[in-house]
Amino acid sequence: MAVENCLLTIMLPRITITVMDANGETLADGKDRNRAPESQHPGGKMLRDGPESLTEAELLAILISSGMKGGSAEAIGKEIISRFQSLRGLTEQSIEELTRIKGLGNVKACRIAAAFEIARRVVNEILQEDHGSDERMNLDGKAKNQQSL
Questions:
Q1: Paired sense of beta strands 16-20 and 135-137, if any
Q2: HEC per residue, 64-108
Q3: Would you say residue 65 has pLDDT above 60?
Q4: How does 45-55 read in b/e, with b if 16+ C-beta sit within 10 Å?
Q5: What pLDDT does residue 118 have?
Q6: What is the residue extent of each domain of the chain?
Q7: What share of the chain is helix, strand, coil (3-state, %, to 5)?
Q8: pTM of the predicted protein model
Q9: Which of the listed CATH numbers 1.10.150.20, 3.30.565.10, 1.10.3720.10, 1.10.10.60 matches domain 38-135?
Q10: Is residue 24 classed as helix, strand or coil in its secondary structure?
């Protein structure tokens, strides 16, 4: 079928392409009809209701960012929680172990590991301030001497 007198619209930064015929009928567009509205995604929920309203899987979905064919980022987050029982269980896993989960490659596993490392450092800063000493506390409450190299 030849398309004559059509209008092509490109919108940035999301790059939406719409092709319309001479009568203004949409022939094709770049919208993903299978995606849930933005407000139903974990990021939209966080913006609307605050981070405390999200489940562990939804928080992980934000770090994971995108899913894979046949599974959303939130589904991957649910799989992670299911496999490791809790966020605490997740903190004990290596990046290599995380990449064994379908949909998690090195980049996504590194994002998760980096988020937990940031959390550990914040907790250590708070514990140092509360204890007023040069001892660094682990998340399990055991002190270890902090030595400069």
A1: unpaired
A2: HCCCECCECHHHHHHHHHHHHCCHHHHHCCCHHHHCCCCCCCHHH
A3: yes
A4: bbeeeeeeebe
A5: 93
A6: 1-30, 38-135
A7: 45, 15, 40
A8: 0.61
A9: 1.10.150.20
A10: coil
